[in-house]
Design goal:
heterodimer, A: 0% strand, B: 361 residues, alpha+beta, OB fold (Dihydrolipoamide Acetyltransferase, E2P), 2 domains, five-stranded antiparallel β-sheet, binds adenosine-5'-triphosphate, binds magnesium ion
Chain lengths: 297, 361
C-alpha cells in the first residue's frame, strides 16, 4: 500500500462551463434577443422601400437598402401642418435640453451642497420623504402650473419649459448631490474654511471638482429624462418649441393615405439617437459614478 | 514668523442639551507646545475646533495673540490647523493643496511659490509637489497636511490627532519631525492626542482632560511624577501605575498599611497634614525595587507572570492580601513564576490618593 502522490483537486482550476453558467448565458442571450429584436426590425424596416415592406417579411434584410426614408424623416416628413421633417423637433429638443440640464444640475448641486452641511437628526428621514415626493405623478401638478405660468405672463415658452424641467429635476438632483456631499468627511470642509474659502468658493473649487462622477450621473439622468419627456413639452413649451417627441408623435399618428412605416421607423430611431449615444458614450462613467457614491469616492 | 499666545477664558460649548465644555480656562504661552491629552469623547477636538473658529461657543472668550477672536472667521484668527483625516483636497496636486489658502487670500504668486517651496523642503515634499493626494502614502499625506498649515505662517498651529491614522513606525518618525519643526519655527502649537507617548515626548506642558474639564496642566515630568488625582495617574504611563488600597497610619513616622505590609512614608511630600484615613497608594512599575529579605521596609510578593518586553521585563506579582501589581526589571532577571520576591516602595516615588475623592494627598 504505497501512497501515490495525487494532485489535490482544489489545486486545479475549476471547470469554466458548469450547468449554472450555461443557464446564465442562456438567460443573458434570450434577454438580449428580447430587447434587440424590435431594434433590429426597426433598423431593417427603415432601410426598406415601401414596396418591400408591403410584402410583409418583417425580419428579412432589405433587398435594396436605401436611406431615403431617413432623409425624408429628417427633412420633409409632415408634423401636422408643416412638412419640414423632424429636424425642427430635434433642434427644439436641444434648445430645451441644454439649458434645462445645465440649470437643473447647477441648482440641484448647490442646494444639495447647502443641505449636506445641515446635519440635524432626522435629516435622512426628511430627505427620504423628499425622494418619495419626487415620485408623485406629474399630471397632478400640470393644471396648477399652467395657471401659475399664465398668471405670471410667461405662458407657454422656452423659458417656461426650462423652468418646469428644472423644478421637476430638483428633488432628484438635490438628493443625488446631497447624499454624495454628506458622505465626504466634514474635515474637508473645515480645512477649506481655515484656508479662507467662502461658501461659494468651497462649492466651486473643492466640492464640484470632487463630484465629477456625480455630475456625469446627473447629466445622464437629466438628459434622458428631459429628452424623453412628452407631456410637459406639449403643455408648456408652446407651438414653436414643441420637442422632438411631440413631433414624432405627429409624424406617426397623422398620416394621410398609406402609412409610411419606413419613415416612421427612421423618425423614431432619430429621436432615440441622442439618449442612445449618451448611454453608450458614458456607460463606463455611469457605473463608476454610482460606485463612487456608494463607497465614498 | 510671529508667535501668538492663546488665552481661553471661561469657555462654554455645548451641542443641544449636551454640555461639552464648561467654564474652561487655558493659557498657552507664545512658542509653547501644549498637548491636550484625554480619553475619547472628553472634548479635545471640540476645544481645538473652538480655537479654530469652526464651532460656535456658548460663552466665554478666546484670545489669540492678544486679540479677541471669539467671533472671528477661521481665516482671520491667525491660526492654521492639521486634521486627523488629513482632509487634503483630492482633486488638487500637492502644490495646489498647499497653495490653496494663499491663492484664495490673494497672495502674490512669487510669494506663494517661495512659501510652498520652503515648506516642501522642510517636510521633504519637493519631489512630490505635482502628485495627487491619492498617489501618496499615509505619512506623505500627513506631511502635506502639515505643509498646508505651515505656508499660512500662522501664529498658532493646531493639530487634531495628526498621527493617529498612521502605523506605529511612521508615527514615531513623524513625531520626531513635528518636534524638530517646533524647535525650528518656535511657533505656538496646540496638539490633541490620546496617545500618551506623543504627549510626553512632544509637550512643553500637557493638559490632561476628562469629561470636558482640565484635570491637570503641567510639564510632562510633573504629570508623570506627581499626578494630581487617580484619573491622571492611571491615564498617563504605560504599563500603567499600580494602585494598592490601604490605610494611612501615624505613629513615630507616617506609614501606609496594606494588610500585613507596611510602607514607610518618610520622605513623601504630603500636600496637607495626613490623617489616619483609608487611602490608595500609587506606584509606577519602574519605581519598585528588589531588595533583601532582611530590609525592614521589604514587602514580599509572589510572582504570577513574567512578560519580557525587550529592553526590560515586566513582572506581575501578588501581595499576601491578593492585591496585584507589576514592576519592571532588567531583561536578564532570573525570575520564575511562583518565586517569592522582596520588593521596596521608595517613598519619594510614591503617589498617595484619597480613597473617596481620588485627589492626591
Ligand atoms: N457635532 C456634534 N453634535 C453633537 N455632539 C457632539 C458633536 N461633536 C462632538 N459631540 C460630542 O461632544 C463630546 C466631545 O467630543 P470631541 O469630538 O471633542 O471628543 P474628543 O475628545 O475629540 O474625542 P476623540 O479622542 O474620540 O476624538 C462627545 O461626547 C461628542 O459626542
Ligand atoms: Mg477628536
Amino acid at each position: 500500500m504505497t501512497a501515490v502522490a495525487q494532485p489535490l483537486p482544489a489545486a486545479r482550476r475549476p471547470k469554466r462551463m458548469t450547468p449554472a453558467r450555461w443557464g446564465l448565458y442562456a438567460f443573458i442571450f434570450i434577454t438580449a434577443l428580447y430587447f434587440l429584436l424590435p431594434l433590429y426590425v426597426m433598423v431593417v424596416t427603415s432601410l426598406k422601400p415601401m414596396a418591400e415592406i408591403r410584402q410583409g417579411n418583417l425580419l428579412a434584410l432589405p433587398v435594396a437598402p436605401s436611406i431615403d426614408a431617413w432623409v425624408k424623416a429628417w427633412t420633409s416628413a409632415c408634423t401636422g401642418l408643416t412638412c419640414q421633417g423632424i429636424k425642427i423637433g430635434f433642434l427644439n429638443s436641444l434648445r430645451i435640453l441644454v439649458p434645462s440640464v445645465v440649470i437643473s444640475i447647477l441648482v440641484g448641486s448647490l442646494t444639495g451642497y447647502a443641505l449636506s452641511l445641515w446635519r440635524v437628526r432626522g435629516a435622512n428621514i426628511l430627505f427620504g420623504t423628499m425622494m418619495v415626493v419626487a415620485f408623485i405623478p406629474y399630471q397632478v401638478f400640470i393644471y396648477p402650473l399652467v395657471r401659475v405660468f399664465s398668471f405670471t405672463g410667461l405662458g407657454q415658452s422656452l423659458s417656461t419649459i426650462v423652468i418646469i424641467h428644472t423644478i421637476f429635476g430638483l428633488p432628484t438632483m438635490t438628493l443625488l448631490f446631497r447624499n454624495y456631499f454628506a458622505s465626504l468627511p466634514v474635515e474637508l470642509f473645515k480645512a477649506a474654511r481655515v484656508d479662507g474659502a467662502g461658501f461659494y468658493q468651497i462649492y466651486a473649487l473643492i466640492m464640484m471638482p470632487m463630484a465629477i462622477p456625480m455630475i456625469v450621473v446627473a447629466v445622464i439622468l437629466q438628459t434622458t429624462g428631459i429628452w424623453n419627456d412628452f407631456i410637459l413639452g406639449l403643455v408648456f413649451a408652446g407651438r414653436d418649441n414643441l420637442p422632438m417627441t411631440v413631433q414624432l408623435n405627429n409624424i406617426v399618428n397623422s398620416t394621410q393615405g398609406e402609412r409610411a412605416y419606413n419613415v416612421d421607423m427612421a423618425a423614431t430611431l432619430l429621436t432615440a439617437l441622442l439618449p442612445l449615444a449618451v448611454y453608450f458614450g458614458s456607460g463606463r462613467w455611469f457605473v463608476r459614478g454610482i460606485a463612487a457614491g456608494a463607497v465614498k469616492g | 514668523m510671529q508667535k501668538s499666545n492663546v488665552d481661553i477664558r471661561s469657555l462654554q460649548i455645548g451641542f443641544g442639551g449636551l454640555k461639552v465644555l464648561e467654564n474652561l480656562d487655558l493659557h498657552v504661552g507664545a512658542s509653547e507646545f501644549l498637548v491636550l491629552l484625554g480619553p475619547s469623547g472628553c472634548g479635545k477636538s471640540t476645544l481645538l475646533n473652538a480655537i479654530a473658529g469652526l464651532i460656535d461657543v456658548r460663552g466665554g472668550e478666546i484670545h489669540v495673540g492678544g486679540r479677541d477672536v471669539t467671533w472671528a472667521e477661521p481665516k482671520d484668527r491667525g491660526i492654521a490647523m492639521v486634521f486627523q483625516s488629513y482632509a487634503l483636497y483630492p482633486r488638487m496636486s500637492v502644490r495646489r493643496n498647499m497653495s490653496f489658502g494663499l491663492t484664495v487670500a490673494g497672495t502674490p504668486r512669487d510669494e506663494i511659490e517661495r512659501r510652498v517651496g520652503e515648506a516642501a523642503q522642510m517636510l521633504r515634499l519637493t519631489s512630490l509637489l505635482d502628485r495627487r493626494p491619492s498617489e501618496l502614502s499615509g505619512g506623505q499625506r500627513q506631511r502635506v497636511a502639515i505643509g498646508r498649515a505651515l505656508v499660512r505662517h500662522a501664529g498658532v498651529y493646531l493639530f487634531d490627532e495628526p498621527l493617529s491614522n498612521l502605523d506605529a513606525q511612521l508615527r514615531a518618525e513623524l513625531r520626531v519631525e513635528i518636534k524638530r519643526l517646533h524647535a525650528r519655527l518656535g511657533a505656538t502649537m496646540i496638539y490633541v492626542t490620546h496617545d500618551q507617548i506623543e504627549a510626553l515626548t512632544l509637550a512643553d506642558r500637557i493638559a490632561v482632560m476628562q469629561g470636558g474639564v482640565i484635570q491637570q496642566l503641567d510639564t510632562p515630568k510633573k504629570i508623570y511624577r506627581e499626578p494630581v488625582n487617580r484619573f491622571v495617574a492611571s491615564f498617563v504611563g504605560s504599563p500603567a501605575m499600580n494602585f494598592i488600597p490601604g490605610q494611612l497610619a501615624r505613629g513615630s513616622e507616617v506609614a501606609f498599611i496594606a494588610g500585613v505590609n507596611r510602607v514607610s512614608l518618610n520622605g513623601y511630600a504630603f500636600r496637607s497634614q495626613p490623617t489616619d484615613a483609608p487611602a490608595v497608594l500609587g506606584i509606577r512599575p519602574e519605581h519598585i525595587e528588589l531588595t533583601a529579605s532582611n530590609d525592614p521596609s521589604a514587602v514580599s510578593a509572589r510572582v504570577e507572570m513574567v512578560e519580557p518586553m525587550g529592553a526590560d521585563t515586566l513582572i506581575w506579582c501578588r501581595l499576601a492580601d491578593s492585591t496585584a501589581f507589576s514592576f519592571r526589571h532588567d531583561a536578564d532577571a532570573q525570575v520564575r513564576v511562583g518565586d517569592t520576591l522582596n520588593v521596596r516602595f521608595p517613598a519619594e516615588a510614591l503617589s498617595l490618593f484619597d480613597e473617596t475623592s481620588g485627589q492626591r494627598l
